[in-house]
Amino acid sequence: MYLAVCDDNIADRKQTERLLSRQSDRVFKDFGERIYIDSYGNEDAFMSHPQMYAGLFIDMVSGDINGFDIVRLLLKMGIDQPIIMCVSSLDYRKMISDAAIEADNLYFLDKPLKVAELTEMVELIRKKNSVTIPSLELRGKDETIYAHGDEIICFRKQKSEIEVSLTDNRTIGIIGDLFNIYDQCRIFPQICPVSDYALVNVDHVSKTSFGKVTMDNGLVIPVAFAYRSYIQKTRENLAKTKQ
């Protein structure tokens, strides 16, 4: 299990590392599980791969981008692992409340961190990590989204990029080969190809007709003759897994 600390106060960052290292020793002794801790003093390095961490401890107060800004970016990206705001000079509770941000993966710890509270938080992260829902990284030109299978409506080849349609009227253009993307989507059994140029989520298909499907967001996608049976087979396989 990997944890990340993002803190621009070097003394606080080192202290959080030490406390988490002790938690790592405890967890290994009690459960035989390893905890690895990565520590960052700036947001650029921290934001490069946040999806790899089971829990993220954040307190950034000195730069142009503070901890509140970072948590908004993480939520926009679709990060749903526990995000722990370590409260020091910035009152993250009030900032998040004032911004009307609601997310069930946001937690708060006051500095200086208390061992008992940190132990409780690590246990929460450890339990959530055991039932993590898989997500797919969708890296666009200006943003990255981590999408769960039920959020993906379809992929369509559009000139030099793949357009991904998501729930809540979201779209993102990504660079890649559709066949490679389909291989990555094997974690989502509801995704299937309908041509060499499109993948669809069968749970978001609202209507099928000869040579095309209509998605629940209104998109009409052509179905190639060679792929005409894929949607039905995918639905049958999904039904078997639910029995």
How does this structure look, described?
The chain is an alpha/beta fold and about 240 residues long. Helix content is about 30%, strand content about 30%. It has a 5-stranded parallel sheet, with helices on both faces.
**Helix and strand element order:** EHEHEHEHEHEEEEEHEEEEEH
Q: What is the SS-derived class?
A: alpha/beta
The fraction of residues in strands falls at: 25-35%
Number of helices: 7
Largest sheet features:
5 strands, parallel
Q: What would you call the shape?
A: elongated
Low-pLDDT segments, ≥5 res:
none
Would you tell me the overall average pLDDT?
92
Radius of gyration: 21 Å
Strand order, largest beta sheet: 2-1-3-4-5
- The CA-CA distance between the termini, in Å, is 32 Å
Quick one: how many beta strands? 15
The percent of residues in helical segments reads 25-40%
How would you summarize the topology of this molecule?
Layout lengths: L1 E6 L2 H22 L4 E5 L2 H4 L8 E5 L7 H11 L5 E5 L4 H7 L7 E5 L4 H15 L5 E5 L4 E5 L3 E7 L2 E6 L3 E5 L3 H7 L6 E5 L2 E4 L3 E5 L2 E4 L4 E3 L7 H12 L2
Parallel strand pairs: 1-2, 1-3, 3-4, 4-5
Antiparallel strand pairs: 6-7, 8-9, 8-12, 9-10, 11-12, 13-14, 14-15
Briefly say what this structure is:
This protein is an alpha/beta fold. It has helices at 10-31, 43-46, 67-77, 92-98, 115-129, 178-184, 230-241; strands spanning 2-7, 36-40, 55-59, 83-87, 106-110, 135-139, 144-148, 152-158, 161-166, 170-174, 191-195, 198-201, 205-209, 212-215, 220-222. The strands form four sheets. A five-stranded parallel beta sheet has the order 2-1-3-4-5, sandwiched between helices. The chain has a five-stranded antiparallel beta sheet with strand order 10-9-8-12-11, covered by helices on one side.
